[in-house]
Design brief:
The complex is a heterodimer of chains A (about 250) and B (about 575). Chain A has about 250 residues and is an alpha+beta fold. Chain A contains eight helices and seven strands. Chain A folds into two domains: about 100 residues, Ubiquitin-like (UB roll) (Roll), CATH 3.10.20; about 130 residues, Fumarate Reductase Iron-sulfur Protein, Chain B, domain 2 (Orthogonal Bundle). Chain A is elongated, with a radius of gyration of 21 Å. Among the domains of chain B are: about 110 residues, Flavocytochrome C3, Chain A, domain 1 (Alpha-Beta Complex); about 120 residues, Methane Monooxygenase Hydroxylase, Chain G, domain 1 (Up-down Bundle). Chain B is built from 16 helices and 24 strands. In chain B, helix 1 runs parallel beside helix 4 and helix 13 packs antiparallel against helix 14. Chain B starts with a strand and ends in a 13-residue tail after the last strand. Classes of the chains: A alpha+beta (about 250), B alpha/beta (about 575). Chains A and B meet through helix 1, helix 2 and helix 3 of A and helix 3, helix 4 and helix 10 of B.
Chain lengths: ~250, ~575
């Protein structure tokens, strides 16, 4: 559905290398072609109108996670968003919130990856490996399915109200990633590992207002992971109290 | 100047697999123009081949049968020893990734699931729904994080630093800061991926410009079999987004405007699961003969999944279903998917042997940017992920052995001088008047129009001439801004120079090769011609700067060339 002949994109622009210049909006007009996505409009602007515009993109098919940004106030991937679906002929584009801007729509993702690394996001094994695959039932695999689907685009991180007030909070993506491993039948990390997230910077920091779920372009529900981790923690604490926890030492 | 023992360029599957194997013993620097998780390996859907024999219908599968299918699929251009190595190592690398956490789909017995794929005699493609590249790349990145691999993220490599005798490292652009930095290393591995963006219609990501292949060529390393370009049968209409072969592996049909499953006329046994080169040609022929369908975004053929039912589609092909809904508003449960063939994969690449060695000592290549050759004239689905894992791992052993015997230090002065040349070159580039995207658009058009699925002499000649004139025009390319940090127009311009080199090698190889083999189909020479053309094409940069063609022998072990029917 085309609502106009042209769209006006108002894009927030900023360059951290130009100290002191405040972010400001620049306007660009783009012809309304059928099937025009926000990413294809951005590419057109950079190619034909302003070669200095900075934004990240790669796969253009909603799998690489490069192009999450704010479109008319809503966080989405630019590549899979049809401009016509935004309603109206004026589209405001802003970089992901809760990050520092490097240039224009490109943000510094370093804090996001720091939080990701903090949860030890890899399969931890103690037992010797078999010659073939580690057995796992399809039902066991399905428990981690939604968390496996995460493309690490940071849409959830940008939408999280806790991160807006506390940048030291681990955030939805990292916690969902931890749940992906603790729920994996093959993972053998000690239950005591959960102690590392047993605080207000970890699982207890979440406001459970589900902004991350709304923002996720891949239907991941990070809050489900956070709730699962909370339950595991309570179980672990209880066992510890009764002296039943396996790895108390 | 930065120093490492080993430089790896590219953060996709091949680069990460090499990095995790080398980083404990050596100082490794992994340079990548995007964060590793954004690499194009992420987009692979269907699966990775290994003769595990997990599927009840594939119990008798062996790596030898996998090797035969691969060699037949390659139209006998693959080097057979390399194929045997890949198919033999397949089991080990797949189990290894599973042990590292890769969440494969599971059978009732709790084993890795395997599905049928094109050109394969058995269901041997191991998968995780239709997100196999996504899970493999995440697993390897997780492994790299656990081992603390040093990753230079958003560093764009400008050139390979080579003397006549050896490789000394790279010159890189730190994109966030805009600094040109020479990096010194005794060994450099390129795992830089394919060149899909050289074509107008490609399933590839925007980052797949083939720069690494162009850099190797500029450094006088020969390119091999560049004319062999894979066109995937099923790209989503208008967007060219990949619709996995898994859609046909799960039982999808291809139908024309008359509702006919036309593959019956071309490949009665294999039907929709004939190899990609054949299926793409059949689709194109159906459209050319007026049996395509019309869509505002262009002509198309139907990929019909409706008979599979919602449950199976949602379980096995959830990614495909979302892509279709999000990008063209079609739900494959209710309607057929409109598809057309488009560029997908580079069989050719940097000439390398089965140890990932190139002809330049100290310089290695693995994955799609390399041509070993295990895919020959046509790659089978499920063999590209395998190629990255097997050869990424083989590069580990090969580089480690080289570093143990090598005593020569890379030359710092050569790197510093090259870095100064690039400073001057970038300053000059900023001053031109032509916009880089115009040159790139015209390059894509001539490649898609003239070096596509069906080729013939006149069109190929046209492409070769167009590329020569586009190279001239490149000399007039300029930039809106001379600043170097986060200047994507600069990045495009830098990539474009290498894209022109890559395109020239493809077009020249295709012009020269007067036969039809695998994905290279000449209307004027429609038959395979083994006596004259069972050989690899090599393109290298001559002393005058122009490309020089030569040929090399195909290694045959156990499988004599036969007629290829399906």
């Amino acid at each position: 559905m085309i609502s106009a002949d042209t769209y006006t994109f108002k894009i927030l622009r900023y360059d951290r290398k130009r100290n002191g210049e405040a972010p400001r909006f620049f306007s660009y007009c783009v012809e309304a072609l059928p099937g025009l996505t926000v990413l294809s409009a951005l590419l057109k602007i950079r190619d034909e109108l302003d070669g200095t515009l900075a934004f990240r993109s790669s796969c253009r098919s909603a799998v690489c996670g490069s192009c999450a940004m704010v479109m008319n106030g809503k966080i989405e991937l630019a590549c899979r968003t049809q401009v016509a679906s935004l309603g109206g002929d004026r589209i405001v584009l802003e970089p992901l919130p809760n990050f520092e801007i490097i240039k224009d729509l490109v943000v510094d993702m370093a804090p996001f990856w720091k939080m990701y690394e903090r949860v030890k996001p890899w399969l931890i094994r103690k037992s010797p490996e078999p010659d073939k695959e580690l057995p796992q039932s399809e039902a066991e695999r399905e428990r981690i399915d939604q968390f496996v689907n995460c493309i690490l685009c940071a849409a959830c991180y940008g939408s999280c109200p806790v991160l807006a007030r506390d940048p030291e909070y681990l955030g939805p993506a990292a916690l969902a990633k931890l749940a992906r491993f603790t729920l994996d039948s093959r993972d053998e990390r000690p239950a005591s590992f959960l102690e590392t997230v047993n605080n207000e910077k970890g699982v207890w920091g979440c406001d459970t207002v589900f902004r991350c779920i709304d923002a996720c372009p891949k239907d991941v529900r990070p809050t489900d992971g956070i709730v699962a981790l909370r339950k595991d923690l309570v179980k672990y604490k209880f066992k510890k109290l009764l002296g039943m926890a396996k790895d108390e030492a | 100047m930065l120093q490492h023992d080993i430089i790896i360029v590219g953060g996709g599957l091949a680069g990460l697999r090499a990095a995790v194997g080398l980083c404990e013993q050596y100082s490794v620097g992994l340079f990548t123009k995007v964060h590793p998780i954004r690499s194009h390996s992420i987009a692979a859907q269907g699966g990775v081949n290994a003769a595990l024999g997990n599927n009840p219908e594939g119990g008798d599968d062996t790596w030898q049968k996998h090797a035969f299918d691969t060699i037949k699929g390659s139209d006998y251009l693959a080097d057979q020893r390399a194929v045997e190595i890949m198919c033999q190592d397949a089991l080990e690398v797949v189990y290894e990734l599973e042990h590292w956490g890769c969440p494969f789909s599971r059978s009732d017995e709790g084993a890795i699931c395997q599905r049928p794929f094109g050109g394969a005699g058995f269901p041997r493609t191991c998968y995780s729904a239709d997100l196999t590249g996504h899970v493999l790349l995440n697993t390897l990145y997780e492994r790299a994080v656990s081992k603390g691999v040093a990753i230079y993220e958003e560093w764009h490599v400008l050139a390979l630093a080579a003397s006549l005798e050896r490789c000394h490292g790279i010159i890189a652009l730190d994109f966030q800061n805009g600094d040109i930095v020479p990096v010194q290393a005794a060994a450099t591995l390129f795992a830089t991926g394919g060149y899909g963006r050289v074509f107008q219609h490609s399933t590839n990501a925007l980052i797949n410009t083939g720069s690494g292949i162009g850099m190797a060529y500029q450094a006088s390393v020969p390119l091999k079999d560049m004319e062999f370009v894979q066109f995937h049968p099923t790209g989503l209409i208008g967007t060219n987004i990949l619709i996995s072969e898994a859609a046909r592996g799960e039982g999808g049909w291809l139908t024309n405007s008359q509702g006919e499953r036309f593959m019956q006329r071309y490949a009665p046994k294999a039907m929709e699961l004939a190899p990609r080169d054949i299926v793409s040609r059949c689709i194109r022929q159906e459209m050319d003969e007026g049996r395509g369908l019309e869509h505002p975004l262009g002509k198309y053929i139907n990929l019909d999944l409706r008979h599979l039912g919602e449950e199976r589609i949602q379980k096995r092909l959830p990614g495909i279903r979302s892509l279709c809904k999000d990008f063209i508003g079609v739900d494959p449960v209710k309607d057929p998917i409109p598809i057309m063939p488009c560029q997908h994969y580079s069989m050719g690449g940097i000439d390398a042997n089965d140890l990932c060695e190139t002809r330049l000592p100290g310089f290695y290549a693995a994955g799609e940017c390399a041509c070993v050759s295990v895919h020959g004239a046509n790659r089978l689905g499920g063999n590209s992920l395998l190629d990255t894992l097997v050869f990424g791992k083989r590069a580990v052993r090969s580089i480690a052995e080289y570093l143990q015997v090598n005593t020569i230090k890379p030359e710092a002065t050569l790197l510093e001088e090259l870095a100064r040349q690039w400073e001057r070159k970038l300053a000059k580039l900023a001053a031109g008047k032509e916009r880089p995207f115009r040159v790139q658009t015209r390059l894509g058009e001539t490649m898609s129009d003239n070096v596509g699925i069906f080729r013939e002499k006149q069109a190929l000649k046209q492409a070769v001439e167009d590329i020569v004139s586009l190279k001239e025009e490149y000399g007039r390319v300029g930039l809106t801004s001379a600043s170097r940090h986060m200047n994507y127009e600069l990045l495009n311009a830098l990539e474009l120079e290498y894209m022109l080199e890559v395109a020239q090698a493809i077009a020249l190889g295709a012009y020269q090769r007067e036969e039809s083999r695998g994905a290279h189909y000449r209307r004027d020479f429609p038959k395979r011609n083994d006596p004259d053309w069972l050989k690899h094409t090599l393109v290298s940069k001559g002393k005058d700067g122009n490309p020089l063609l030569s040929f090399s022998k195909v290694e045959i072990t156990n499988y004599q060339p036969m007629e290829r029917t399906y």
